[in-house]
UniProtKB/TrEMBL annotation:
Record-annotated Macro domain positions: 1-151
PROSITE patterns in alphabetical order: MACRO
Species of origin: Mytilus galloprovincialis
Annotated Pfam families: Macro (PF01661)
Transmembrane segments: none
Any Gene Ontology biological process: peptidyl-glutamate ADP-deribosylation
Protein name: Macro domain-containing protein
CDD domains in alphabetical order: Macro_Poa1p-like
Length: 151
């Protein structure tokens, strides 16, 4: 899946480690609900580390869209994949959010993106399907995506 050569093109890697130890120039992405409760899972860590819930709420984003914070040198993306924190996303809502994320990355010249196994923890989507979807959506742009898994 990864392109050889320099930094041009699409590449995708999975690695063990803490997502928050990635380079501070990497943009970050994770999934949340429209209500932006962020009360469980890795979302709690995003809320503690970056705050900005009021700013995110004021963006008024709906399921299938992306809310964005700019923190220091990077963007932090909140993929809205479900209406309520108690709900579950679908592959379609995740796909719509990922497409919005891609548009923002291209427009803002984001070339490095780090994320957890989005949609696959508490949200119970299948990683094999999600990772294929990520590669399909981003394969035609110049971006390196690193997925961190805790082990």
């Amino acid at each position: 899946m990864a392109e050889g050569g320099g930094d041009v093109g699409f590449s995708f890697e999975e690695k063990k480690g803490d997502l928050f130890d990635c380079p501070e120039t990497d943009a970050l992405a994770h999934c949340v609900s429209e209500d932006l409760r962020m009360g469980k899972g890795i979302a709690v860590l995003f809320k503690k580390k970056f705050g900005g819930v009021g700013e995110l709420m004021s963006q008024g984003k709906k399921t299938g869209e992306v809310a964005v914070l700019k923190k220091q040198k990077r963007f932090v993306y909140y993929l809205i994949t479900k209406v309520k924190a108690t709900g579950k996303p679908t592959y379609d809502t995740l796909r719509a959010s990922l497409k919005e994320l891609k548009v923002h990355c291209v427009k803002n010249k984001v070339h490095r993106l780090a994320m957890p196994k989005i949609g696959c923890g508490l949200d119970r989507l299948e990683w094999e399907e999600v990772s294929t979807m990520i590669c399909e959506i981003f394969s035609d742009i110049d971006i390196h995506i690193t997925v961190y898994r805790v082990l």
